[in-house]
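quick one, 338 residues, struct below
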Amino acid sequence: MRQMTSALDSAARLSVAPMMDWTDRHCRFLHRLLSCRALLYTEMVTSPALVRGGARHLLRFDPAEQPVALQLGGSDPAELAQAAIMGADEGYSEINLNCGCPSDRVQSGLFGAVLMEKPDLVAQCCAAMIDAQPSEVTVKCRLGVDDQVAEDVLPDFLDRIRAVGVRRVTIHARKAWLQGLSPKENRDIPPLDYDLVMRMKAQFSDMHISINGGVASLDHAKALLDGGLDGVMIGRAAYHNPIDILQRADAVIWGEDVGPDPVQLVLKMRDYIEAHLKDDLGRMTPKLSQVTKHMLGLFAGQPGARHWRRHLSEHGHRDGAGWSVVEDALAAMDAAAA
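---
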């Protein structure tokens, strides 16, 4: 367990945020080809869906994605413990509790950012998850919500989860406004407070603290690490510009090799795509677009990128679309750039 914890600490120096409808297993496989080291997260999976809904298929992942963490949403300690057991059994080495998502659906289910108002319940949930299974339990949270005073709320929150055994936390450096702002607005409008997160690292020096929010480049991530934080989590920038963030991540953050260039990466995806299209899950017909929608940003800023995106968008969803669509998209991009 100590070796696994050390490996996760290293991987968490740079992580890709859990993002609903984005960081599914196809996205994570693509990201892993770009970075061997970064920690990847699943989309949030709710404990009711797993325990009461029998949706264990949501836990499916390719072993090549490791290191990969499962993010759970929920607020019932016993149910979260059962969901954590399922995650550990599937092979996830980290189970993360979502205390940061501000969506209405999450609020009505009493999980996500609304849990910042219930630190005792969060501590109970974490304790139950830790006691139930061997994988490390972590938390992703906000500075606070609505009219809470972040300088008071956040240290109390960290103190309570640390007391039950949580040693790694990712802090989205914004408050969430559950009243008055949409989930999209909550990603941008509440002001960032990096200084408060830095003070939390100084106050809780024994905890591994990562920062999330507003980080759009590797240079910025490296500066935050050099400033004393243990990790940086990047969301939308890593998804929309994976080459800018993830291709160079291993070199910039860990001093290792640069990942494949975009064309090499596309070619590396061929076997995966063809296997996916033959994969009958019994729930839906596999489609090319389920994979290629995550590849649209691979050539961002390069000549012909618009033709790459357009060809995949127009043809990837069609019945029978296969690898030839990807080859044609590369050819359309090359022709436009010539």
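The chain has two domains: 2-254, 262-337.
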